[in-house]
Amino acid sequence: MSSEMFRDPSVHPLFAEYVRSETRRQFFRRGGNALGMAALASLGMPLAQSAGADAQSGAGLGTLPHFAPKAKRVIYLHMVGGPSQMDLFDYKPQMNEYYDKDLPESVRNGQRLTTMTSGQSRFPIAPSKFKFAQYGQSGMWISELLPETAKVADDLCFVRSMHTEAINHEPAITLMQTGNMVTGRPCFGSWLSYGLGSMNSNLPTFVVFVAQPSNTEQIQAISARLWSSGCLPGEHAGCSFRSAGDPILYINNPNGVPMNVRRRTLDGLKSLNEMNFRAVGDPEIHTRIQQYELAFRMQSSVPELTNIADEPESTMELYGQDAKKPGTFANSVLLARRMVERDVRFVQIYLNNWDHHGNVAVRLPSQCKDVDRATYGLITDLKSRGLLDSTLIIWGGEFGRTIYSQGGVSRENYGRDHHPRCFTMWMAGGGIKGGTVYGETDDFSYNIVKDPVHIRDFHATTLHLLGIDHERFTFKNQGLDLRLTGVEPARVIKELLA
Questions:
Q1: How far apart are alpha carbons 87 and 490 in whole angstroms?
Q2: CA angle, 173 as apex, 390 and 333 as ends, to 5°?
Q3: Which of 27, 261, 291, 481 is buried most, with the most CB atoms less than 10 Å from its CB?
Q4: pTM for the complete prediction?
């Protein structure tokens, strides 16, 4: 940057000060942007028509979807901690004969254990204390802990052969949400926001709720980086809705600031930011402008969205009376229905405390009570409104639990450690074949014996339902073409598709 520039009267003093204080990295980034814009100009293509500009404007990529989608929206219910598959969906009656016997070495076969049980002198088998029955025309085995969910068994598709490499929560949740155990990658919702764009310009494309469980014995950390946009433009990060007070901080104007003053303030900010963008060329400045504008539109759309007073009492009966309590899972799920009804693309709900290292007899029934009625209500409600076929619902955690007990064991109570070798998830709606079970585990629900499904396959399949070829959906970052499914082979599980 020439020193004469600072003496040029046409240069705004604020910009001159910015240039003096910028770092070497910022200088080269700005130079790179200038070269990029010059290259585009030489090709005769307006900057606004580039794929990146389209994605930043909320319109998504012009090349997507690759083919006709079966699902347009996603509601992802993540049970943080890892639900116990053999106590909920993976019925193993043979284990009653193994009560308090050691897990055979031929089954464990030297597989990795967590530090919480690796020091145990023995690994006693803990059969599920809960009863199972078959439901629906499909005859799905479901635990007595989920009697309401069982009523919609024929809408559910169980994948009993999910597996992962991660054995601890933080990398396991990160892998499930971003496709990589290393932090900093874009999450699933951000990928869809970037690729498919918004369907409602007055609401965020990607919304996050962190629901509060009734039982709080063992809460896991849930950090905002799980809904980060990573290397994608910042506008594609999830928008977190709060359970108390204003749903979004500062959604309301301060006292004494009318809407026309807010509008004039934003217009002034936009002008200043546009000046900065023309001078610096940082695309995140446009992200800031767009987020200010979205926030202004949300001031009228969000209060109406989150006001459930207009819902009839029959809706509260459907979801359960907890739906009236802000922050509960039932309330979050009801708001998720209201969001997809208004064409929000992706709604993520986290529910904590599924990490059952002990006291399964008390904690698991409490967790199931939180989700059971509400989950049934969500599926039934979406179906009655004609939205289930176009809305994909996902339910599951980051890994499963061990058939052997952590600590002592009795017929009436036990604990279970983390188990990445096999676990169960289910999906419904959005092009999924209901009443289907895919994959099998051994008698101990310890190893997969048929049709394994890695998290990469799960991501490839869900993207396929949204009309996206996972191998063609990439983002250039640091010289690499990043994909949600990574670089290792991943396949679409076509047996799950309706």
A1: 29
A2: 40
A3: 291
A4: 0.85
Is there a single domain that holds both residue 25 and residue 111? no
pLDDT tens digits for 104-127? Answer: 999 999 898 999 999 999 999 999
| 26-70: pLDDT as tens digits | 555 555 444 343 333 333 333 333 333 333 446 789 899 999 999
Instruction: Indicate whether 316 and 367 sit together in one domain.
Output: yes
Q: Which parts of 57-187 fold into alpha helices (H)?
A: 85-88, 105-108, 169-178
What pLDDT, in 10s, does the model give residues 119-160?
999 999 999 999 999 999 999 999 999 999 999 999 999 999
In whole angstroms, what separates CA 79 from the centre of its chain?
Answer: 11
| Spatial CB neighbours of 108, under 8 Å, sequence gap ≥ 6 | 123, 446
Neighbours of 107 (CB within 10 A): 16
Residue 235 resides in a domain = yes
- Which range marks the domain in which residue 16 is found? 3-45
Range with lowest mean pLDDT among 50-54, 226-230, 289-293: 50-54
For residues 40 and 129, membership in a common domain is answered with: no
Q: Are 382 and 391 in contact (CB under 8 A)?
A: yes
Distance of CA 150 to the CA centre of its chain: 24
**259 found inside a domain:** no
Peptide bond into 65 cis (omega under 30): yes
Write the DSSP symbol of residue 162: E
Residue 26 lies in a domain: yes
In a domain, 52, yes or no: no
Same domain, 458 and 393: yes
The residue count of the chain comes to 498
Dihedral, CA atoms, 138, 142, 147, 148, nearest 10 degrees? -60
Does 136 lie in the same domain as 103? yes
